[in-house]
Amino acid sequence: VKIDASYLSPHVNLASRLEAATKKYRVPLLMSESFFGGLSGSIQSTCRRCDKVSFKGSTDPMVIYHQDLEPLPSLQSPPQNHAELLEMTSWDKETETSYRGLIKDAQSKLQSANELVQREVYDALFNSYLDKDWKRCKIFCHLWLQRFPGD
After folding, report:
1. Distance (Å, rounded) from C-alpha 135 to C-alpha 10?
2. pLDDT confidence of 73, banded at 50, 70, 90?
3. What are the two backbone dihedrals, phi and then psi, of residue 113, each rounded to the nearest 5 degrees?
4. pTM across the whole model
């Protein structure tokens, strides 16, 4: 039986690139958007978007996902550069005033015992990143890192 290698090649290349990218994102497994779409809803609810990337050999950017193997509250061991990350994502008084409601709402959600409510903040962070709304992204990132320093 002969197999047309041109059919398998793009999938093999994508799998290889995703595997190589796990080191950059410091996660054990990355999934493509199409793979994520095939997962059950209960499994999808344990996954988060990592980035939107274009891999070599691909013309269209894709969102990549990873699965949280541990519950979010367990992400408490900060990396060595945690203080630096918090400093880089801090904001000034003007931003504090302008985004007061957003900050309070996000802080409230992050203090919730419901992980799905907490994930709403991560989704807002990621959407701000995709929209290139750097000020909002910075705020959400700072609050997320305060709550989950090991993420």
Report:
1. 37
2. confident
3. -80, -10
4. 0.83
